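> call design_seq(struct)
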């Protein structure tokens, strides 16, 4: 696998981007990849960047679809740009990177963040994975962690969950898709590993970059 021996190779680090809704199981797959895969796998996802974001600008990069926070919307593309530039820097140094994110363009105005992000990773080995999960399972997972529709700490009611579910998989261009209602995190990681080993070179991010027109 690319970049498996850091410091002894000039190869670029492999990048895996997991795209899906909150509670779809992305973070658990990240943990499985870090545990199971050879080499150093850095976790540079949405949760990490939210932890670094000042409280007054939260949820920052995790801003959900709906356009309700137009005051911080202009910052979101900049934060995404910073995250993807960091991902690129790690890969160029031979470090593998796994990213959990929820890309969407459901802002007050279209931001084109996904295609811009793809542009920033041109020439780097990127596997773009769609993480699917039925909405009923996502709502159940939220309820099992204490979520209620009226909970001010997590205001994602059923309508907001449906909006995430619809927006996050547009345009639906992936190299691979996994369903966490059918596979465990470890099984998803193994599917990803086998795809990297046995399938043609990933092309989803190349196709997405082409959509930007640049």
């Amino acid at each position: 696998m690319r970049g498996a021996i850091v410091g002894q190779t000039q190869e670029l680090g492999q990048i895996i981007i997991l795209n899906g809704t909150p509670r779809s199981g992305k973070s658990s797959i990240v943990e499985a990849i870090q545990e199971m895969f050879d080499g150093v796998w850095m976790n540079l996802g949405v949760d990490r960047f939210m932890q670094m974001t000042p409280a007054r600008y939260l949820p920052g990069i995790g801003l959900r679809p709906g356009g309700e926070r137009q005051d911080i919307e202009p910052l979101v593309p900049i934060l995404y740009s910073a995250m993807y530039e960091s991902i690129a820097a790690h890969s160029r140094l031979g470090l593998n990177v796994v990213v959990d994110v929820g890309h969407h363009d459901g802002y007050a105005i279209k931001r084109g963040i996904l295609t811009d992000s793809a542009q920033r990773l041109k020439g780097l080995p990127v596997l773009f994975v769609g993480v699917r999960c039925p909405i009923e399972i996502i709502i159940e997972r939220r309820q099992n962690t204490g979520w209620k529709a009226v909970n001010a700490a997590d205001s994602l009611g059923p309508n907001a969950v449906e909006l995430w579910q619809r927006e996050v998989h547009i345009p639906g261009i992936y190299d691979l898709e996994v369903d966490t209602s059918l596979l465990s995190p470890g099984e998803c990681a193994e599917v990803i590993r086998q795809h990297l080993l046995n399938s043609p070179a990933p092309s989803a991010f190349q196709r997405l970059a082409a959509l930007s027109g640049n």
